[in-house]
């Protein structure tokens, strides 16, 4: 048996008046997902356990079949693993966004969705000015980077606010606070003049793009211990394709092979067809492939209703159609990791709809891939990491 797990990141959401009280997922034209539902099992999964932050870290850990509480790893450490950063026992890794703050408001958590090339050049400028025996800055993808702090484990216990949680809101009271936070606040202050003097930022401003005004550290993590490799846990060899470091880091930590497929990105420019074709090709020497698509979540964070609908429809048209053609030989699990409601521009921890189809999967009466239809089946998988049991069972 061969298996494909398709993660439509953040595709679920809440009903919108502008869509006739439908969600973006319910409004989108998804004939191929609907066909999977008609042929297979539809239900809901609780991917974010009670008390956990409703982030892709916990939710995608669940989809991969791991209990995100027992196997907790701070997100900064996960993304550091993706970038090949080995953390010493006395080091803490934090996600560090380049952001644009205007009039003390979080005007853009993604610095206007800055390009990777520009962003890396700016982080290089910051590293030259700020790196020392305590701080090391590492460039990542687009606006997402890593800050490693040595000798300050107390940073794991500080309170942080992800910048995408406060889009278009005041930053007052949202910067890091708690024991040791003064260290980060001082670094953030010292970064501002470096960013103000950046040649890359100046070029962005001259052409009307948002410059990076601030660094924003959050999501701390330390080096993990005791994680069981996926192959050992599940008895199958797996590969993964994704355009973001979080999923790449989970792959590294769980011993899942990472696929390099040209054209795979974290946004609307993702080459959906190339990604699914590369994933299906990887089934030649793997039992299971995880296909993670970030674009619906990015559009949700931006509050872009039509952009999120377009992303969902592109996934259905370019990716699910290819999976539908292989249902006689490949078992498919398709689901978001968490909802990203347009009106909130951030994640919530509510259950998400999943569809399971392929050899050995019996239909349970569904006809449409929508949140309300999934709820109507009465099937709720809680805890969500047991969805992997259904897929492989």
Account of the protein in words:
The protein has 393 residues and is an alpha/beta fold. It has 2 domains: 2-73 and 226-392, Alkaline Phosphatase, subunit A (3-Layer(aba) Sandwich); 80-221, no CATH class. Helix content is 34%, strand content 19%. The chain has 14 helices and 13 strands. It has helices spanning 24-27, 31-39, 56-63, 75-82, 116-130, 181-196, 199-206, 230-234, 245-254, 272-282, 295-301, 305-324, 371-376, 387-392, and strands at residues 2-8, 41-45, 91-102, 105-108, 135-141, 144-150, 214-221, 238-241, 257-258, 288-293, 330-335, 352-357, 380-381. Strands 9-8-10-1-11-12-2-13 form an 8-stranded mixed sheet, with helices on both faces. Strands 3, 4, 5, 6 and 7 form a 5-stranded antiparallel sheet that branches. α9 links the parallel β8 (238-241) and β9. The radius of gyration is 21 Å and the shape is globular. The mean pLDDT is 97.
Summarize the structure.
This protein is an alpha/beta fold. It is built from 14 helices and 13 strands.
């Amino acid at each position: 048996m061969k298996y494909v797990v398709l993660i439509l990141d953040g595709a679920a959401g809440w009903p919108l008046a502008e869509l006739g009280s439908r969600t973006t997922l319910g409004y989108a034209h998804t004939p191929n997902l609907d066909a999977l539902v008609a042929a297979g099992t539809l239900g809901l999964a609780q991917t974010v356990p009670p008390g956990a932050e409703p982030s892709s870290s916990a939710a995608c850990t669940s989809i991969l079949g791991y209990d995100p509480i027992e196997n907790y790893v701070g997100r900064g450490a996960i993304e550091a693993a993706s970038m090949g950063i080995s953390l010493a026992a006395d080091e803490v890794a934090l996600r560090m966004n380049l952001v644009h703050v205007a009039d003390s408001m979080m005007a853009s958590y993604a610095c206007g969705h800055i390009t990777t090339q520009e962003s890396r050049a700016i982080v290089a400028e910051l590293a030259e000015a700020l790196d020392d025996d305590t701080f090391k800055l590492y460039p990542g993808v687009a606006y997402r980077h890593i800050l490693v702090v040595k000798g300050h484990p107390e940073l794991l216990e500080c309170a942080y606010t992800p910048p995408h949680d406060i889009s278009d809101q005041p930053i007052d009271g949202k910067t890091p606070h708690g024991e040791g936070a003064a260290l980060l606040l001082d670094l953030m202050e010292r970064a501002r003049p470096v960013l103000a003097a950046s040649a890359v930022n100046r070029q962005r401003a001259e052409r009307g793009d948002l410059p990076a005004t601030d660094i924003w550290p959050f999501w701390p993590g330390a080096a993990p211990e005791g994680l069981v490799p996926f192959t050992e846990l599940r008895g199958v060899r797996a590969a993964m394709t994704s355009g973001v470091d979080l999923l790449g880091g989970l792959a590294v930590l769980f011993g899942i092979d990472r696929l390099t497929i040209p054209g795979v990105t974290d946004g609307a420019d993702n080459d959906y067809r190339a990604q699914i074709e590369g994933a299906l090709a990887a089934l030649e020497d793997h039992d299971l492939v995880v296909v993670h698509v970030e674009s619906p979540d990015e559009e949700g964070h931006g509050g872009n209703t039509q952009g999120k609908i377009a992303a969902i429809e592109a996934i259905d048209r370019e990716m699910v159609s290819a999976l539908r053609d292989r249902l006689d030989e490949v078992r498919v699990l398709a689901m978001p990791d968490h909802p990203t409601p347009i009106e909130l521009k951030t994640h919530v921890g509510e259950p998400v709809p999943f569809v399971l189809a392929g050899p050995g999967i019996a239909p349970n009466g569904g006809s449409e891939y929508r949140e309300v239809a999934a709820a109507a089946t009465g099937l709720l998988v809680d805890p969500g990491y047991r969805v992997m049991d259904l897929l492989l069972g």
